[in-house]
Amino acid sequence: MTLFTLYNGLRQYYLDTLLLYAFANETNTTLEMPFLQQ
Question: What tens-digit pLDDT sequence spans the chain (38 residues)?
Answer without folding.
Answer: 799 999 999 999 999 998 888 887 766 555 555 555 54
